[in-house]
């Protein structure tokens, strides 16, 4: 692939990410929660509401220090509990509180009601969107692997109506 094509790919993906990130940030303002913190609640909701900080880092693509900082704020806001793992006090388990579940459900309802979220895709057919998603999945599969695809990309949130 030539350098100009690589540059265009990089800048396009980066610009799409920032457009989406800005929308997530706007939605989160009502609950004082960042897009990354919203993602942690999502990860918990798709993984039986219990993950270790290291697994959160792996699934969220964050460094351990970033996870620690994000979890601290979520815990201070009452959205998660962090406790020692049974019989292994050195390991921690993170779970979502009822308050965290409430916030995530409301964020989900807001997103579901927004016709143009995460992007205004009216200029694309459904088939084009499906192709775009499939291209992204091919790239992610190479870089993140099958378990990431299974545990993050293809996993629905528990008890939420996607229809």
Automatic annotation (TrEMBL):
| Family annotation (SUPFAM superfamilies) | Winged helix' DNA-binding domain
* Residues annotated as domain HTH marR-type: 2-141
Record has Metal-binding as a keyword: no
Keyword Repeat listed? The answer is no
Q: What are the UniProt keywords, alphabetically?
A: DNA-binding
What protein name applies here? MarR family transcriptional regulator
């Amino acid at each position: 692939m030539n350098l100009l094509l690589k540059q265009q790919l990089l800048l396009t993906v980066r610009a799409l990410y920032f457009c989406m990130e800005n929308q997530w940030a706007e939605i989160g303002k009502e609950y004082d929660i960042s897009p990354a913190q919203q993602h942690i609640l999502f990860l918990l909701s798709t993984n039986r509401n219990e993950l270790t900080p290291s697994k959160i880092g792996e699934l969220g693509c964050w460094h351990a220090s970033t996870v620690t900082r994000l979890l601290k704020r979520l815990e201070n806001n009452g959205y998660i509990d962090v406790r020692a793992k049974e019989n292994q006090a050195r390991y921690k388990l993170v779970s979502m509180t009822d308050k965290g579940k409430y916030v995530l459900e409301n964020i989900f309802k807001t997103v579901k009601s927004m016709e143009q979220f995460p992007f205004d895709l009216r200029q694309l057919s459904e088939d084009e969107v499906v192709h775009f998603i499939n291209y992204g999945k091919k790239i992610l599969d190479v870089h993140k692997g099958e378990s990431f695809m299974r545990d993050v990309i293809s996993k629905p949130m528990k008890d939420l109506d996607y229809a």
